């Protein structure tokens, strides 16, 4: 009888220990599941960032290639159409002087509208997550009045998850009147380096 009385507390303790182990195991499994889910979510974010960066770089390179030799890509309308394919349908070019317009119209105006012009990119960068890029460029050519002009400026582009431009912000290190005169008036007296135009240019 004495032995039987001792067996009950031992059995009870064993049951408690087993229950504790079972509970601890369940907690560990839940913690592992939570950590795994966090890891997978983080990896998905990293993959999405890497994907956007790659798409942004690819699309930016395509735009730069067109701008470097736009005469090779068809008529002015075809060039503007092609450049617009690298932007969303509602994308704008927000020019600090000329205002914000749809990006296709902006490209057409920039290259062919009131000027026969080119854009030479001097420097550029792309954010590590592909959300923004920037460029320093020279916009130069002959304006509608036949006068040569050259302007330096910057552009900051924003991109969606597919690497498509959603907005392009453009600014110049000149006052508005100087820029307007360059494009719609007498041009600029010199190139961006201060060298006067040769007679007849």
UniProtKB/TrEMBL annotation:
Q: Which InterPro entries does the protein's record reference?
A: NTF2-like_dom_sf
Q: Which residue ranges traverse the bilayer?
A: none
Q: Which UniProt keywords apply?
A: Coiled coil, Signal
- Annotated coiled-coil segments of the chain: 25-52
Q: Which SUPFAM superfamilies match?
A: NTF2-like
What is the annotated signal peptide range for this record? 1-26
Q: Identify the domain of life.
A: Bacteria
What protein name is recorded for this chain? SnoaL-like domain-containing protein
Classification of source organism: Bacteria, Bacillati, Actinomycetota, Actinomycetes, Micrococcales
């Amino acid at each position: 009888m004495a032995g039987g009385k001792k067996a009950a507390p031992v059995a009870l303790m064993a049951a408690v220990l087993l229950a504790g182990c079972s509970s601890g195991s369940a907690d560990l499994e839940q913690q592992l599941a939570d950590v795994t889910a966090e890891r997978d979510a983080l990896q998905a974010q990293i993959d999405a960032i890497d994907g956007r960066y790659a798409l942004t770089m690819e699309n930016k390179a395509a735009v730069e290639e067109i701008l470097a030799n736009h005469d090779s890509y068809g008529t002015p309308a075809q060039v503007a159409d092609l450049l617009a394919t690298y932007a969303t349908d509602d994308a704008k070019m927000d020019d600090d002087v000329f205002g914000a317009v749809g990006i296709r119209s902006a490209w057409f105006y920039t290259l062919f509208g009131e000027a026969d012009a080119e854009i030479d990119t001097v420097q550029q960068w792309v954010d590590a997550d592909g959300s923004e890029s920037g460029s320093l460029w020279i916009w130069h050519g002959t304006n509608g009045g036949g006068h040569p002009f050259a302007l330096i400026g910057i552009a900051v582009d924003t991109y969606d998850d597919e690497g498509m431009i959603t907005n392009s912000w453009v600014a110049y290190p000149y006052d508005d009147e100087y820029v307007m005169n360059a494009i719609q008036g007498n041009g600029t007296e010199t190139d961006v380096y201060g060298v006067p135009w040769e007679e007849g240019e």
